[in-house]
Amino acid sequence: MSRVTALTMMRDEAPALLEWVAFQKLIGIERVIVYTNACRDGTDAMLDRLARMDEGILHRRNPVAPGGKPQPTALSHAQTLPETVETDWLITLDADEFLNIKPGAGRVSDLLAAVPEDTQGIVVTWRMMGSNGLTDWTPGLVTEAYTRGAPDAFRKGWGVKTLFRPFPDLKLGIHRPSVKGAGKDPERKERLLSMAWVNGSGQPMTRQFMDGMWRSSAATLGYDLVELPHFAVKSREAYLLRQLRGNVNAKPDKYDATYFGIFDRNETEQTSLTRHLPELRDRIADYLQDPVLSDLHARGMAWHAAQIDRLRTQPDHADRMAALARASDIPFDRLDTMLFTQPLAPRGKQMVAELKSKGVPEAEIARIVAQSVAKLEVQRDARDFAELRARGIID
Predict the structure, then answer these.
(1) How many CB atoms sit inside 10 A of residue 63's CB?
(2) Theoretical Cys-Cys bridge with 28: which of 103, 108, 139, 192, CB 3.0 to 4.6 Å?
(3) Is 334 contained in some domain?
(4) CA torsion, points 58, 63, 64, 66, in degrees to nearest 10?
């Protein structure tokens, strides 16, 4: 029986915490390690209590200096701890991500039984989940409230997370691990490139991906065995709460209307996770039988309700909600008309800044960016397909 560990970072996640932890336990993740920083809603106190109730839950406070980045700080610390790396399998997840394992009962053991025996890593591609048209803050179960998501072809949502066997000289990353020193040491780089990783359909990944990619290509995309529903937006009011909370990489204005419009994807029905709802509800109910935890949870819910009340009284609330509505109304086939610079490399962001300084209209800049990105994607796809054909993996 393989021991599986999930690592995450949280801040102000009281409404969703019990569902997320219960879900990990339900699918067979024995150890859950959570780093928190500057919680205001009692998430940290809830985790302290959960850790006393279940030795498989570990809570670590993550003090971050002003201007610091909580996620890299937590990852750097976590990779030094035995409780993180002394496990058969490890994955780094966000608190709005839930593994959707398709074989068997949807447990991690079912997934591991479905991939080749020598597999050292499973690259799991996001399925971006939308708001389901919900406007108000909806504090119920995320996996029940949001059941519509992106189609397979939504390339902007092809980011990945990796379930992998820990290895020597491990360097943790939020999307996938690497080998320390691989950039300078050819032997260590070859060790990284030769690891036996597969995609979400159990097919081998390419050396190009292993060399540092964190997104699937058209050649490496796979959803047959496992995918990762990513509830990045939720309802419009929940999204505004997320803006207030900030983000783990301290990126200013990350959660703007453009981000909402890009990732509020509702084109396809995605109800696979709902099969876990009966057991999930039972596990949450068991947690809440503890009076201390139940009280902390109630206080956390009240804190968020108060934040929503304050949002609704702000004079710009209606305008902000309307901006999200306009962004989400942009059709799927016109998303490239939105100037979305967050995933661009520094060189791409510099190009956008230069075009803006010259007075180029934003719509024209968006078109230029889309064409540039598409060209790079075609080139990457071609290299990946060529390698897989040369290895006899595809025809």
Answers:
(1) 9
(2) 108
(3) no
(4) 150
141 assigned to some structural domain: yes
How many domains does one find in the chain?
A: 2
Residue where the block lists tokens 């498989």: 56
Q: Exposed (0-12), middle (13-18) or buried (19+): which is 377, by Cβ within 10 Å?
A: middle
Three-state SS across 184-252?
CCHHHHHHHHCCCEECCCCCECCHHHHCCCCECCCCCCCCCCEEEEECCCCCHHHHHHHHHHCCCCCCC
Beta strand spans in 102-206 (E): 121-128, 148-149, 160-164, 170-171, 178-179, 197-198
Q: What are phi and psi of 380, to 5 degrees?
A: -65, -45
Same domain, yes or no: 296 and 236: yes
Q: Provide the phi-psi class of 115: left if phi over 0, else alpha when psi is between -120 and 50, else beta.
A: beta
Q: How many CB atoms lie within 10 A of CB 259?
A: 21
Residue found by looking up tokens 């819910």 in the block: 301
Q: What pLDDT is stored for residue 250 in this prediction? A: 43
Quote the CA–CA distance of 273 and 282 in Å, as a whole number: 15
Residue 22 inside a domain? The answer is: yes
Its pTM surpasses 0.90: yes
Crossing angle of helices 277-288/14-26, nearest 10°? 120
Q: What is the CA radius of gyration of the chain?
A: 21
Same domain, 272 and 366: no
Between 14-26 and 291-313, two packed helices, what is the crossing angle to 10 degrees? 130
| pLDDT under 70: residue ranges of the chain | 245-253
Q: Are residues 143 and 97 in the same domain?
A: yes
Task: Please give the structure tokens belonging to residue 351.
Answer: 């190009």
Given this model, what pLDDT does residue 64 score?
85
CA 340-346-349 angle, 5° bins? 40
